[in-house]
Amino acid sequence: MDYSLAGFIGAIGGVVVGVVNYVATIAFVQTRLRRLDRSQTREEREEFERKLSLFRRIVLGVDIVAFSAAGYWLGRAVGD
């Protein structure tokens, strides 16, 4: 396989953009979801927090993969 330095730099830039997108998205969505939370008991609140934590990890993983792939592709298209 042939790897490209421009693609690698683009992927790093994509990861940075993905993390920025993650922070903005999670801040907005988490605030909205907490307002909608109707947990009555401690167990329900713990379940809500567990699901919210899983959601944050999934969004972070998808953001990093998608934005780094897009950054790599863009870096190769522009740099090579």
Description:
By secondary structure, the chain is mainly alpha-helical. The protein has one domain (5-79). It has helices spanning 5-36, 42-79. Helix 1 (5-36) runs antiparallel to helix 2. The longest helix has 38 residues, at 42-79. The radius of gyration is 17 Å and the shape is elongated. The protein starts with a helix and ends with a helix. The model has no long low-confidence stretch (mean pLDDT 94).
Number of helices: 2
Summarize the amount of helix as a percent range: over 70%
* Helix-strand sequence: HH
Largest β-sheet summary: none
Summarize this structure as a short list of keywords or feature phrases.
single chain; 80 residues; mainly alpha; 2 helices
TL;DR?
The protein is mostly helical. The chain has helices at 5-36, 42-79.
Topology:
Layout (H helix, E strand, L loop, with lengths): L4 H32 L5 H38 L1
Helix pairs in contact: 1-2
